[in-house]
Design brief:
Length: 137
């Protein structure tokens, strides 16, 4: 299944096509992942191109499992503001006490969110503020 996901995300598509169809198909593939598929994704995600990582982060809330959380947290280490915003947007779905604990233990995430809020446009600012509310509830 990992190979299917990699091929899908690596395929040349229009932005509209990805967000209309590709991310739904990717979510369906992720829902069928075995532990070994997840382990392979965890081990390879940081070696993938930035656009690939953005597409993945966008569709990583299908089951809100520990693997998805690990991947999103690892992607937050990449210095790209758009990828960071996508990850934060997706992380708003991770509302279990365990997920919140893992996020809150990483102070750099909260610091970066707080630094971005004053510089962000209305939509991104709302996402960042909503993330802080949800993770601190």
């Amino acid at each position: 299944m990992y190979k299917d996901l990699d091929n899908l995300i690596s395929a040349e598509t229009t932005i509209d096509s990805w967000y209309d169809d590709g991310c739904i198909i990717a979510s369906e593939i992720l829902s069928k992942f075995s532990s070994s598929d997840w382990e392979e994704l965890v081990s390879k995600v940081l070696t993938k191109p930035l656009e690939w990582q953005k597409k993945l982060a966008y569709c990583m809330d299908s089951s809100c499992n520990i693997y998805e959380l690990q991947i999103l947290l690892s992607l937050l280490s990449i210095e790209d503001e758009e990828l960071f915003e996508i990850c934060i947007d997706t992380l708003r779905s991770f509302t279990t006490p365990e997920s919140k604990k893992m996020i809150l233990e990483n102070h750099s995430i909260l610091n970066r969110v707080n630094e971005l809020i004053p510089k962000s446009g209305v939509a991104v600012k709302k996402i960042l503020e909503d993330f802080l509310v949800k993770v601190q509830q």
